Amino acid sequence: MRLTIVFLVGFCCSSYAQSVESVVTNINKNYDSFQSFSCNVEYLLFDSTSSEPVEIQTGLVLKKGNSSFFKLGEIEVLTTENAIVQVDKGLRQVVYMPNQTKDNSLREASLGTIKKALEGCGDSRLGIEGDKSFVEMDSCRFSQYEGIKVFYHSSEFYVDKMIMVISKNERLEMNYSKVKINKGIASKDLSIERFLIGSGEKAELKKELVGYKFENYFKK
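RE: above sequence
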């Protein structure tokens, strides 16, 4: 599976008087302000062989305080203030490591992706398509993508959709739905106990994951 994990991003309040650079610089300020956030995610891969997606994956995003959970297809990533757990059910592998940065990895990954793309793009603009506001970056010759288009909710400033053009005939789309802001999220959904028994060097896989390769970087 060609899996580029594009994490959820949010926008602070912006207007068309602002530059694209200003909007991108302020990515995630509003997202960070939410006490909790959750949504469903749909990943679509298109190529030149069909007008229909050649690959579809679904998942979800949860965020509460400094903890977050991202699931897409067989990949799951749980980040807490002290640790990160990455589960690949396809490879039957679990990686457990200290959270060195103490930052929200979902935020940092999204912010880094957009900023890097902007630096390598020859053309960028803000606009409106239908009832959706967007930021678009084209001619991204020095980026991972040739172009990126991000649609965002203009009142609460969360992302509705991201389109990433890989080449002329290939693109990724990420759609976000069933967004819930500051609604209850169960503590167990953002706890390492979701996957592990114990923590640190003594951590062991829960019985549901027995047989998976377990890499515990707390022991290294």
